[in-house]
Amino acid sequence: MVIDPLFPTCPIRNILSRICVADTLCLIQTLGKRGWASYEELSSYLPEDALSASLTVLKEDKIVVESGNRYALSNIGKELCPLISMLITWCEKNVSLSIGQSFR
Predict the structure, then answer these.
(1) In b/e form, how buried is each residue of 26-58, taking b as 16+ CB within 10 angstroms?
(2) Is pTM beyond 0.90 here?
(3) Cβ neighbour number for residue 63 with a 10 Å cutoff
(4) What is the reported pLDDT for 31?
(5) 51 near 85, Cβ under 8 Å?
């Protein structure tokens, strides 16, 4: 994992500061559902600048692997994916009630 200089000794804050960006969470969830996907396929889910930034972070942290122009979750990414799905479900159940939005 890449260490966030703001939180070098806190593993929870470190990982959350890297992945808790809406587009990054969406990308992890999308790859978890699709398996391998090309950049072009992923760009239909996310704006190009957000996709590029999220892929950079996730590759640096070894959550996403790249082969050619195709991307997939690594083993640790696959381990993280169900946790993110649970977080999204929890948010939809508890947070969206008060703001009237869906996260998917």
Answers:
(1) bbbbbbbeeeebeeeebeebbeeebbebbbebb
(2) no
(3) 27
(4) 95
(5) no
